[in-house]
């Protein structure tokens, strides 16, 4: 982190908060793209023993952590609340109790310091993480948002113009990874463990189904795939047969990745864009990045994905999104509330 204040006289500084799920995070970003601090306090060890996020515990942990995290973000950025231009906060989608902690603190800070408040959509934040990893990146592009709660294809036409092409009808890609991992007795969150295990397995060992593969169908469905993997594991257990877990992980991952890659390329083609931008926690998946890289190269499409720390939940991506809303004066007032099922493009 550079000492931005020494280099520039009047930067636009956004302080952002992110508490939508199980990370309490605060960040200061200068002029939309320069990360001065990005403090992430993860609750993963707390939830791991339950095999998933317990909403009530998440809210309580956010309350404990949020003020120290904000303090640290300001200190690391070497700025005070007084220097901040605007305050951004995730207000959906996410767990309502968890979101309310960030929203309440952001509103209190905005009121106390008399700074404008920007309400940010978490999914748009994931997409904007790419602007932090690639300072030269600009819209238009096709974004594949793949997280624990969402799987969507979004045509990003401008910094404040989005078109949702399609999303999942049931489970999100990350959710499928986590559920399969849980049955295979891998720790939470399971995505990174499946990713690692799959490296030693054969992706063609088991023919798991790929859903909704019709041309220009931009919807996803992963519940059939999840059931197929669970049936495979249960049938083998009933017959007393030993299962090759690495083969199951590799074959399951191949089924998810095949669908994501083929739909992302078709969507880019349909919307005549030359760039595909990955976003969300599953963007850290090594097979997804590799397969997309190969296909994009063939199709002469540029591929962008954030560095791993910016793939999962963090406040720097929220600050980046808030900056572009600030530029067009898209502010919230003190009535801002948490919206657990907030739709893309509804930011305020
Ligand atoms: O974006 P994120 O941090 O939280 C949500 O907004 O949901 O995404 C978390 C999800 C989890 O389901 C996790 O298992 C998955 O991202 N994930 C991965 C990998 N790293 C994280 N999935 C597959 N492969 C990975 N390497
Ligand atoms: Zn997320």
Secondary-structure map:
Blueprint: H1 4-7, E1 13-18, E2 23-30, E3 34-42, H2 44-48, H3 55-77, E4 86-92, H4 96-113, E5 117-121, H5 122-133, E6 141-146, E7 151-158, E8 161-167, H6 173-183, H7 191-198, H8 223-238, H9 245-270, E9 275-279, H10 286-299, E10 302-304, H11 308-311, H12 315-327
Parallel strand pairs: 1-4, 4-5, 6-9, 9-10
Antiparallel strand pairs: 1-2, 2-3, 6-7, 7-8
Bound molecules: 5'-O-[(R)-(carboxyoxy)(hydroxy)phosphoryl]adenosine and zinc ion.
List the main descriptive attributes of the protein structure presented here:
single chain; 348 residues; alpha/beta; Nucleotidyltransferase, domain 5; five-stranded mixed beta sheet; 12 helices; 10 strands; 44% helix; binds 5'-O-[(R)-(carboxyoxy)(hydroxy)phosphoryl]adenosine; binds zinc ion
Describe the structure.
With 348 residues, this protein is an alpha/beta fold. The chain has two domains: 4-128 and 311-327, Nucleotidyltransferase, domain 5 (2-Layer Sandwich); 139-306, ATPase, nucleotide binding domain (Nucleotidyltransferase, domain 5, 2-Layer Sandwich), CATH 3.30.420.40. It is 44% helix and 18% strand. The chain starts with a helix and ends in a 21-residue tail after the last helix. The model has no long low-confidence stretch (mean pLDDT 95). Bound molecules: 5'-O-[(R)-(carboxyoxy)(hydroxy)phosphoryl]adenosine (KG4) and zinc ion (ZN). The site of 5'-O-[(R)-(carboxyoxy)(hydroxy)phosphoryl]adenosine has 19 residues, from helix 6 and helix 7.
């Amino acid at each position: 982190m550079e000492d931005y204040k020494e280099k520039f006289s009047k930067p636009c500084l956004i302080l952002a908060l992110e508490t939508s799920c199980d990370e309490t995070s605060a960040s200061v970003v200068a002029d939309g793209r320069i990360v001065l601090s990005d403090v992430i306090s993860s609750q993963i060890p707390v939830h791991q023993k339950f095999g998933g996020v317990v909403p009530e515990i998440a809210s309580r942990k956010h309350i404990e952590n949020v003020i120290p995290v904000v303090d640290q973000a300001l200190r690391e950025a070497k700025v005070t609340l007084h220097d901040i231009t605007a305050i951004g906060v995730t207000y959906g989608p996410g767990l309502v109790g968890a979101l309310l902690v960030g929203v309440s603190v952001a509103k209190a800070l905005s009121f106390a310091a008399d700074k404008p408040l920007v309400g940010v959509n978490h999914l748009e934040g994931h997409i904007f993480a790419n602007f932090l990893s690639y300072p030269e990146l600009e819209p238009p592009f096709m974004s594949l948002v793949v997280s624990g709660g969402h799987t969507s294809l979004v045509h990003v036409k401008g910094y404040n113009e989005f078109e949702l092409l399609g999303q999942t009808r049931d489970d999100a890609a990350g959710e499928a990874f986590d559920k399969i991992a849980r049955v295979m007795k891998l720790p939470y969150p399971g995505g990174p463990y499946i990713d690692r295990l799959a490296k030693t397995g054969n992706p063609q060992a088991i023919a798991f189904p790929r859903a909704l593969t019709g041309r220009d169908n931009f919807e996803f469905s992963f519940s059939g795939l999840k059931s197929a993997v669970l049936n495979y594991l249960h049938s083998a257990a009933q017959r007393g047969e030993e299962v090759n877990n690495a083969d199951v992980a590799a074959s399951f991952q191949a089924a998810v990745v095949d669908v994501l890659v083929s739909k992302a390329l078709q969507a880019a083609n349909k919307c005549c864009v030359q760039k595909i931008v990955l976003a969300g926690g599953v963007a850290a998946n090594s097979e997804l990045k590799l397969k997309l890289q190969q296909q994009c190269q063939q199709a002469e499409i540029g591929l962008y994905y954030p560095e791993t720390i910016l793939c999962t939940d963090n406040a720097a991506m929220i600050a980046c999104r808030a900056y572009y809303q600030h530029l067009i004066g898209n502010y919230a007032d003190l009535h801002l509330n948490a919206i657990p099922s907030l739709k893309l493009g509804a930011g305020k």
